[in-house]
Design a protein that fits this description.
about 260 residues; mainly alpha; MetI-like fold; 2 domains; 10 helices
């Protein structure tokens, strides 16, 4: 088979995969549209998706949805980066060194199990209700998720790789850089993907609880529901879903570049 034929086959396969990925959301929206238009569900509370377009355009024209999207996205990205970078290093250390794992594992298990929204009032007392507390709750929520995923990836490596590195007199840093980190990257990106989705959930929930002078998609959704503006509420919900989808696609693209040997 020629190289051009292989490329055409890959393009067709990719097009089929994209069509299959889009068919689920399109089918869901079509069923929602049909049920709302035929009043199988109450259109006052479940407006048809096509009826949301004027509301979306109005929110874009006024800049409200753009400002709220920017506020939520900035909180997610800052909290995600601040938590993930040190979490990967802690996870590598816990996976490579048993004393570090024994020392940190009880704290990681306890903090990971605590509902993070429950400690938000404490963060408000310490940091106030501004941006610091919103970012801090994201950091606390996802830090140990990435730590445990990274540690699991390191522990899953065959010990023979580290033994070979030691036989060649590799330093501890060389073992981390050439053995532990590359071998754990698939598990690390799994943890990062989960952490990214969890960040979106946490930031929307936090914005729900701080709507007095707050902004963000969560505040938009909550205020809309309280004002019985259901079209605006559903627009906010759809934007949240699309934001999560786009962020996941970007992380998948980064994974393809960083871990090219990982089978797809």
């Amino acid at each position: 088979m020629s190289a051009s034929s292989v490329k055409r086959r890959r393009r067709r396969q990719r097009a089929n995969e994209v069509a299959l990925q889009l068919s689920g959301p399109v089918l869901l929206l079509a069923v929602w549209e049909l049920l709302s238009r035929t009043e199988r569900i109450d259109p006052r509370f479940w407006p048809a998706p096509t009826s949301l377009v004027p509301t979306l355009l109005r929110l874009v024209e006024t800049g409200q949805i753009v400002d709220d999207l920017r506020a939520s996205l900035l909180r997610i990205l800052v909290g995600f980066v601040v938590a993930s970078v040190p979490a990967v290093f802690f996870g590598l250390a816990m996976g490579l060194y048993r004393p570090v794992r024994l020392f940190l594992m009880p704290m990681a298990t306890v903090i990971y199990a605590v509902p993070k929204i429950a400690i938000l009032p404490l963060l408000w007392i310490v940091l106030g209700t501004g941006e610091s507390s919103k970012v801090a709750i994201i950091v606390i929520s996802i830090f140990f998720l990435v730590v445990l995923s990274t540690m699991g990836g390191v522990l899953a490596l065959d010990p023979i790789f580290r033994d070979v590195a030691r036989d060649f007199d590799a330093s501890q840093w060389q073992i981390v850089r050439t053995v532990a980190l590359p071998g754990a990257l698939p598990a690390i990106f799994t943890g990062l993907r989960l952490a990214l989705g969890f960040s979106l959930l946490i930031v929307v929930g936090t914005e729900f609880l701080d709507v007095a002078d707050g902004d963000g998609l969560g505040a938009l959704i909550y205020r809309s529901s309280q004002n019985v503006a259901y079209e605006q509420m559903f627009v906010g919900l759809i934007v949240v879903g699309l934001l999560g989808w786009v962020l996941t696609l970007l992380l998948d693209l980064i994974e393809r570049l960083v871990v090219p040997w990982q089978p797809r």
